[in-house]
Amino acid sequence: MCGKPKTPKVVERDPVAEQRAAEAQAATQSNLEIASRRRRLRESSLLTMGAKGFMGSNTRSLLASAIGKSTLGGQ
Known about the structure:
Elements: H1 15-44, H2 46-49, H3 62-66
């Protein structure tokens, strides 16, 4: 069994691909956090609480309800 020793397998890495994957993951996490923050702000806004307050399930804007529409700016 004397002979040429086997060479170990070399794990090839692509640093550019690893960097892109890390950047994509960071961007996704950041977008999720921003969306969550915006959702919390929108839900806690005084304009969306309406007459029912925090316990109400209706999240129509007070300004929109004042003019009889379900959303502002739309039809």
